[in-house]
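Researcher: I'm preparing a figure for a lab meeting and need a structural model of a single chain. I don't have an experimental structure, so a prediction will have to do for now. The sequence is pasted below. Please return the structure as tokens so I can convert it later.
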Amino acid sequence: MTTSDAGHAPLPEPRPGVDLYDTTLRDGTQREGVTLSVDDKLRVARRMDELGVAYIEGGWPGANPKDTEFFARAADGELALSNATLVAFGMTRGARTTAEDDPLLRALLDARTDVICLVGKSWGYHVDEALGVPRADNLAMVRDSIEYLRAQGRRVFFDAEHFFDGYARDHAYALDVVRTAADAGAECVVVCDTNGGAMPWDVADIVRGLVEDLPSQVGLHFHDDGGCAVANSLLGLEVGATHVQGTANGLGERCGNANLFTIMADLQLKKGLQLVPSERMERLTEISHTIAELCNQTTPSVAPYVGHTAFSHKAGLHASALAKAPDMYNHIDPADVGNRQRLVVSELAGRSNIVLKAKELGLEISDDDARTVLDEVKRREAGGWTYEAADASFELLLRRIAGLLPAEQEPFRSLHYRVNVAGGDEGHALPGEGPAEAILAVEVGGERKLGAGEGNGPVDALDHAFRNAVNGTWPQLDRIHLSDYKVRILEATAGTDATTRVLVSSTDGTDVWDTVGVHPNIVEASWLALSDAYTHAILRDGWR
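Model: Understood. Here is the structure written out token by token.
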């Protein structure tokens, strides 16, 4: 055990390796558009605990009712963490009160966490202009707050806000602040790049000096405004820091915080540090996507390791090499982080893309069929179609061309439809919105079936009309619903005569598949995409 210079209760021995500190529930929620209920915060915390991070910062008790409720429910047993330690965040005492009488410090104690993270000013400019107190008073606020919380039996981390800006403009005072925090008993002094502008060539030298100078552990907290948050974090760890803060998927204010998932994978899969068991690392992609959904954010697409396209290959040259050895164009095995390799089919593809994509779908096709499919893909893409983000439509195209889905096995054939949309001054409806009616005819097993439907717009009306027409023929359709709908105008200069591409995502609550339709008529483009979605939903159980 170690003892701080201030003579307080012994601190725990530093853990070997690197401590991952998650601040998604506090700093991450400052991302525009992210609002979490207390239930959401509990769910995010459980997922990060499952991943195996060392610390989870739950928020700022006393600053808002939601965070206060979160800590109360956590302390009452609703958040039983198996791997992580919960941390309450707050600021040093006010300038005109004592630590014992400060209401925000009392709220931190009332949160009943073993660890408290305090933030304080380390840039003299902020002390002068934002706090408006003498610089010596700010040092006293830092020292008194830490000593008081340590005397109450709490472990304390100290976030030195704006440290790198302060160090660049007045390094003597910035160093005074972090030395004061360490001497007062802070277990870890975290240097924060609050404005996100620190550069790697400065970070390494500064952090190295702090590691040599401070009696505490040194931690890191970087924002990504200069695009260097992950790089700065890794460099700081390389020169001796042992604690790094970040957020799930890089959530955070402005350009976000350091992406904790990227840091975690880099350290374990590249540096060789065993931060978590491999079976937890294999859940990285799943947890990343789940938290994105909980935070009402789009699922990461190009994010390292966990993105949908992180291991996607489009060029024919890549596909040809991947057929021989997958590690030629993958920097890791995608399965190590729970992701998968994807072959993307486009006009840039070669025959190898088609063959490998077919194998990915569990199909064997001939070279002649592969060439025919490739020629058809290129012809269609010249007309605005794209199959990069529409795997289900591509599978149907491939099966049809290769004779694996002959016409007589198609579950239905579209005959005709008619859609009426209300609008004008009375309903104040925008184009494509408002009440709509659809009548649709399809052929099923040689029998003509007719259905009518009403909906909020033509696509919704067509969906209802189709379901009414087939009327329980395929019970699995009851579980299917449209989860996303995207429209793109392909020829902006063509005005209302432009070709439209529609991408539809459908789900049965477990799996998601994507389909595409292209036509100058937006309703027809939508119906083509919907038709593929229904066909895939009906036939997929027999294919898997």
